[in-house]
Structure formats: C-alpha cells, structure tokens
Amino acid sequence: MFSLLRRPTLTWPRRMKAILQNQRSIYSKPPKDKIGPGQSLLALCAFAVTLLAPAGWIMHHIPEYKQRSSQQP
C-alpha cells in the first residue's frame, strides 16, 4: 500500500536539474510596488482570521461535542 503512495526517487542528475530550475525562479531584485503598513496589517489580519477562526469555532463548541458523545451508547 505504501509503495503506491511513495514517489519515485530522483537520480543525482535529475535532482541537480530540479534544484537549478528552482533557483532560476528566485528573484533578488527589490519589489516593484512598495506595500504600506495598512496593507501589511490587512494581510496579517486576514491570515490570522483564516488560521484561528476554525480552531476558535471548534474550541467554542467543545461542550456540545462532549454532550453528543455521552448521549450515544
């Protein structure tokens, strides 16, 4: 079963070729447009909400989940 899920390993030349292709796509120039503090704050808030909202929902409803599990035999 696990052999079907495992990816085939890359040989040394193929691995080096893949690494070089990844390095070519990395740019070291400064950004074209500067991002202001407002946009940074908005992006950080959006990330925080998308990461913490599901966990908060689950933690808020833990008592309900406990009641459901105790009612079922």
From TrEMBL:
Compartments (UniProt record): Mitochondrion inner membrane
Membrane topology qualifier: Single-pass membrane protein
Keywords: Membrane, Mitochondrion, Mitochondrion inner membrane, Transit peptide, Transmembrane, Transmembrane helix
SUPFAM superfamilies listed in its UniProt record: Mitochondrial cytochrome c oxidase subunit VIIIb (aka IX)
Superkingdom of source: Eukaryota
Pfam assignment, any one: COX8
Family note: Belongs to the cytochrome c oxidase VIII family.
UniProt protein name: Uncharacterized protein
Annotated organism of origin: Pagothenia borchgrevinki
